[in-house]
Amino acid sequence: MIIFQIMIKLVVLDVDGIMTDGKKYYDQNGSVVLKTFCDKDWTSIKRFKSMGINVIFLSGDENINKQIAKDRNIDFYLSRSSPKESLLKIIEDRYNVDRKDMCYFGDDLFDIGIMKEVGYSFCTCDSPLMVKSNSIELNVLGGNNAILHLFEYCEKYCLIPILNYEELISKIYELDKKEKF
Description:
By secondary structure, the protein is an alpha/beta fold. It contains 7 helices and 8 strands, in the order E-E-E-H-E-H-E-H-E-H-E-H-E-H-H. The chain is 33% helix and 17% strand.
């Protein structure tokens, strides 16, 4: 008897507190002017994409996050005035993937609803206890190569395919050519 393990087909990422440390830097007019991101996270996103696994951003902050996503060829979904899980049907239809085959990575109370709906939910170690109780806690702080930790967890537990280095790096270089940064 062959048992097939469900593999992740779509990675949905919160941005602030996952891709960033959650800190925002404001100018004198109250506009966000700076957030920091880790390069290894961008490489990890390309590693997912190299395997045919789409990666999207689902964020309540459109200001900088939407442009960053656009420059990196990542689809962006805004969830400012409604629960994140209310976008799941749209996402399922757009990517032709069932929510049980989705991975969500978030860090705050706004993420719990969607965490309960998807097949795989992850959070950072600096997330509130309520979030941790609804997801798998990764031993990483937000903004400190969190996506790299997610990728390596998924690889370790066979939730994604494994590519050899030569195949992987050539696909990553192709993805690099399509990014504006």
